[in-house]
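Let us practice reading a record.
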Amino acid sequence: MAKRPGESSKAADGSSKQGYDELVIEKRVDRHHAGNPGLPESLHSIGSLGMLTRVSSLLRVFALAGRGLIAILRRSALLCVVCSIIQSAGKAETPFLTNAWSYGLHYYSDSSPAVGDDGTIYFGVSNGDFWAFRPDGTPKWTFHTEREIKSSPALGSDGTLYFGCRDRKLYAVGPDGRKKWAYPTGAWVDSSPALATNGTIYFGSWDKNFYALNPDGSEQWHFASAGEIVSSAAVGVDGIIYFGSHDHNAYALLPHGKLAWQYTTGAAIVSSPALDQDGTVYLTSTDGFFYAFKPGGGLKWRLKTGGITDSSVVIGQDGTLYVGANKTLWAISTDGMKKWEQLYGDLIDASPLALADNTICCASRQGALVNQEAPNAFHWFYGQNWPVTAPPAIGSNGQIYAMAHVESGIVLNAIQIQVKLAQSPWPKFRGDERNSGRQKTYTR
């Protein structure tokens, strides 16, 4: 059931907690730091992320001194110190953004937020709580499950939230934070659900099955693969459903659950598909290849990236394909040619975010959220200073939501950029602001 501030509840371990387990709420009104510091020409140079790593280590030492200091780390005074260090590298001037607000929690999260039309932000955390935040950063409600939530929520047209949990269930929670139903599977549900236009919910489980549910929570059908399914499905405009499995296969299923086609890669598939306007399906495998499949099945092309991280493909405003491959952001043309790459300072687990100004946002475990349009051509920079593993999200108001893993949990940061999501068939992880997992049609 939904909980509001001041109410107590039982955690999964049976212990009680009072109200919200928060580190800090901090509101900010400044959008750009007054110093407008320069961003390094190369994210891998000694004067860039290598330098930021040293700054990050310094900030972590402060964080360890006490939870109250988390707020201090976000204040302009300390940001001035960071900015001064960056400026001392003598680089070109690029805006260094600060947060509109931040909210800290004592738990970790790999759940990429869904954002409603009213600006409400939804995501789950490692203690089993599922959160709803207002656009101003204040908690709206929280719903408690029994295990960790790694799944990213999908927001239905009626306001229902769908998400998986490691208590082996897929949940449907209403916009008021109350449970509608929970569907049990045989193992963890880390896969993020996809929503068809007719309301069908698609998702995979560690029990090796892929499920289709009706809006009321009853099962339509399930499809058995030979491996665990953590890949999140994508639904085409024709209703075909695509996903990958630990059994090395990429699958395409018809809306009634029959196999349309499958393709065997060289290793487990943990990333999620992206669908282009011509029906091409893009997917990566831990065999180190980026795959493009024809709409009717069969390989269109493949490109060796060497990537084994969880980052999934997104499609930019101009049709460029972007994906994180280990420590490198790749930009790839639709005919399978590498356009450019940008080396980051650590592994890129989070999928990039494509914006309407033809730029791409990307973050690595090193923590910096970077916006660029080409190699070393940076538009702005946000120094979160801690690892990022969940794909950043964005609302229709042009506010980005990015979660950084701090020493004792996460900090949800809201960054106002006043640029909207790219108008492409698949500009972000799960396809759109609501994480529907459904293909959009656009004319470039």
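A brief commentary: Residues 280 and 294 are 5 Å apart (CA to CA).
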